[in-house]
Design goal:
This is EcsC family protein. It comes from Paenibacillus roseopurpureus. Helix content is 75%, strand content 0%. The chain has 254 residues and is an all-alpha fold. 29% of the residues are buried.
Length: 254
Amino acid sequence: MEPTYTIYEQQIERKLKRWEIRLQRQPNLIERASKLVQNRINQVIPEKVHNTITATVKGIVQTTLFGVGYMPSSEPLRGLSLGDRDAKAEELLSLYKKIAAAEGAGTGAGGILLGLADFPILIGIKIKFLFELAHIYGYSTKDYRERLFILYVFQLAFSSSKKKPELLRTIKNWPVISQTFPPAVDYAKQIDWLQLQQEYRDTIDFRKMLQLIPGIGAVVGAWANFGLLEELGVAGMNCFRLRSLQDKANCGFI
């Protein structure tokens, strides 16, 4: 039996289908050429730099899996319509875009060292946003599988076109796939940290490199961070919308 969606939910369902099509399209010529250039750049970057960035990503991801620092103090919202959740999510995204832009402007104005320091700070802002977003859509981040879901959303937002379809399939089949995951400590051992940090860095390289240029760093830093939060917000809201509609279809109202 087909679920009875409201008019708003039907509109969102159509938007989600268009979003999924865009995610699964093949990379265009410019994107393929950009990836080749980025691969060449990665080959000449010293191993020590790769190791440092990988360690940073690994530390933040492990904090996401095992820590409580990102966990919202408020309980997940219950009994709201999808439209109400979306409205609250838009408010949250607007706030975090301003926070990220201010942080990018500050570190961008500080030259190369502060510009590099922006890397872990910005990831922390993004992860915190996703934790709060999960609670808006009614999912408790006390469950480590919900924290894993957040990591998949993060990867979907900042992975290559080649990787996105696979991540989208995982997110769409989350109710089944999440039950197959081992305990968090064992799951962490399976993560390819180097690939994760390269996928993330490659999607933000151009914008973040401009942030290091003297004289324009503050403006570019604010612009880059604002845009990156916007991309994350779109991916995050759509992923949680997918789950909300799936829950309703399965009669598992939140």
